[in-house]
Amino acid sequence: MKTVHVPVSVPYDVLIGPGLLPSLGGRVRDLCPRAARFLLVTDDNVGPLWAAACVKSLESAGLAGDVFTLPHGEASKTAGNLIEILSFAAQHRLTRSDVFLALGGGMTGDLTGLAAATFLRGVDYIQIPTTLLAAVDSSVGGKTAVDLPAGKNLMGAFWQPRLVLCDTDTLSTLGPGDFVSGCAEAVKMGMLFDPDLFALLTRDGPDFDRETVIARSVELKRDVVAEDEFDRGRRALLNLGHTLGHAVEAESGFTLSHGQCVAIGMAVVCRAAAKYGVCPPDLPARLEAALDRFGLPTRTDIPFPALMERMLSDKKRAGGTIGVIVPKAVGRCAVRPMSTEEAGAFMKAGL
Asked: Which of 131, 162, 306, 308 is deepest in the core (most CB within 10 A)?
């Protein structure tokens, strides 16, 4: 097992390794000694596989609770489902000393985290990521959110988990598409900060060592989050590929996965950076080769005007300015503020 400590306003550990679910109850008891009840939020894909093991461990530690199951998929990450979770918690008389647990991927983690942040003005919650994407990215850092019709993650809060328990055995049940979606975020971390990680992923492709890559990705994100917990500076770098990627994701009606869309977004900004002379001319080919190792897409046929309309609703826009994350080299990227017109021209150049 590997442990990554995240030293933020409410410090916590990320535990990564096989066979961790049976220890869940004892860890919750240690972290939340006043808790009497739990609410475990999951989806209809993950719940039948792993919820029973979690509940057994929690009950063996003396906790009682209930399971709330959502339909799987990004379409469930709505304000309506947020209210459903909050109402369920209230009906089952959870108190401020009790604990929420998110068992699943990014949708479940984001939604449960926001529910925990808002129920009784804030209760403890624990992330139990079961997808690679959630393990390497969304379960760490305290960003919680739901989607609005205008775009992704437009309603949210910063609320740090008390623990992230990443049992790598749960990754064995992922379908190929779900697995490679997480690979895009790992490639992103290498592109941003770590040439060695980028080289490892390019070399090994889908056969990479799970524990090693997850731990390294979490360490890199930990360093950024510890410096900029509330996303007012350097943390913006973590949005590499996300401005256009979120637009592609929404415009596709969420038929493309988050990781596929981030891959497209990264490739677009990298090709644009090369055309603008910001990065070496061979960098787009190197990035595309890494993404190709996982069967991830690098282009979209969605018309640009529709994508631009989505980008104007991006939560990272400030007034008439969008902070575009631009690659300069493997392991070195920068935030470049652009007017919406400049950002549109830049993105269009990379399509």
From this structure: 131
Q: What is the CATH number for 142?
A: 3.40.50.1970
- pLDDT value of position 307: 95
Pick the last residue of a domain from 173, 201, 231.
173
Alpha-carbon torsion angle 209, 203, 179, 215, nearest 10: 40
The predicted pLDDT at position 279 comes to 97
Question: Does residue 199 share a domain with residue 82?
Answer: no
Q: What is the dihedral of CA 31, 33, 38, 40, to 10 degrees?
A: 10
- pLDDT at residue 96, rounded to an integer: 97
Report the Cα–Cα distance between both ends of the chain, in Å, rounded.
Answer: 42
The string of DSSP codes covering 295-324 is T------S-HHHHHHHHTT-TTEETTEEEE
Q: DSSP string covering 154-169, please?
A: EEEEE---SEEEEEGG
Q: Which domain holds residue 149?
A: 2-173
C-alpha gyration radius of the chain:
20
Pairing label, strands 2-6, 37-43: unpaired
DSSP-H helix ranges across the chain: 24-31, 47-60, 79-91, 106-118, 132-133, 176-193, 195-204, 210-227, 242-251, 258-275, 283-292, 304-311, 340-350
Helices 176-193/210-227 angle, 10° precision: 50
Provide the pLDDT for residue 210: 96
Q: Show the low-confidence residues of the chain (pLDDT under 70).
A: 315-316
- What pLDDT score was predicted for residue 315? 65
List residues bridging with 124 in a β-sheet.
Answer: 99
CA distance 164 to 136: 11
Give the tens place of pLDDT for each residue, 269-326: 999 999 999 999 999 999 999 999 999 999 999 999 999 999 887 766 777 889 999 9
Structure tokens at 301: 């046929």
- The pLDDT score that the predictor gives to residue 314 is 74
Instruction: Please indicate, yes or no, whether residues 167 and 239 belong to a single structural domain of this protein.
Output: no
